[in-house]
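User: I've been trying to design a sequence by hand for this structure and keep getting stuck. Would you show me what you'd pick, starting by listing the structure so we're on the same page?

Assistant: Good idea, let's start from the same input. This is the structure you sent:
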């Protein structure tokens, strides 16, 4: 149980909430929380000039890292780009209008899959340490598991951004191989592969386009 109470750091122990069996009960969000995360949340295309601090980005990841993944493998890797020079380099790899969006964002997250994520299995899932060898021998299964789990983590990251008061603009139109070559140059990053670019910032009235329709429940939900 965390007792860290430093400013900007979320804790897992909130006063006034009773425990049940050693774990806190799941409490439903009020309407305002649901609106911020879901019903009123939108993909942002522009942001104000207000900067995004390192503390905000650290808080975002502190929430996002609790996403579920297959066998707790956690294959998603994140590069936060905040400098003007870094954004210019990244913008050069973006397609079409995505270039302007990156240039105008106070912060950008490059999301990547670590293609060697399975080497950490003995650390993150000790009871299934043998899975490392199985995935080493099956690249197709490894790629599928990594992509699936990273997609779940990506969804959590977008929700985490909203939870800390930031708007997000996910984009898939970019030169992924070029981003890999430009940014993932460290010895621990050689197997990282960029899959999504997410602009982050504080929204204003011009940030959003009109809401597009969602499919009705009767079109996509069935009951058994």
């Amino acid at each position: 149980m965390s007792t860290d109470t430093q400013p900007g750091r979320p804790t897992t122990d909130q006063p006034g909430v009773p425990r049940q069996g050693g774990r806190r009960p799941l409490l439903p969000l009020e309407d305002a929380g649901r609106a911020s995360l879901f019903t009123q949340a939108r993909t942002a295309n522009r942001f104000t000039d207000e900067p995004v601090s390192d503390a905000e980005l650290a808080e975002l990841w502190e929430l996002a890292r609790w996403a579920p993944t297959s066998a707790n493998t956690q294959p998603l890797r994140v590069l936060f780009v905040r400098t003007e020079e870094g954004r210019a380099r990244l913008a050069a790899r973006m397609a079409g209008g995505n270039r302007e969006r990156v240039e105008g964002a106070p912060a950008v997250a490059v999301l990547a899959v670590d293609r060697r994520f399975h080497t950490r299995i003995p650390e993150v899932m000790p009871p299934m340490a043998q899975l490392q060898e199985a995935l080493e021998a099956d690249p197709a299964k490894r790629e599928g598991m990594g992509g699936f789990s990273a997609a779940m983590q990506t969804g959590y990251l977008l929700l985490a951004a909203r939870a800390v008061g930031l708007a997000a603009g996910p984009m898939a139109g970019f030169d992924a191989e070029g981003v890999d070559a430009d940014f993932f140059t460290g010895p621990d990053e050689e197997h990282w592969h960029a899959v999504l670019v997410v602009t982050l910032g504080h929204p204003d009235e011009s940030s959003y386009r009109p809401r597009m329709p969602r499919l009705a429940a009767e079109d996509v939900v069935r009951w058994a």
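That's my pick for every position. To get oriented when you compare it with your attempt: Residues 50 and 202 are 7 Å apart (CA to CA). The mean pLDDT is 92.
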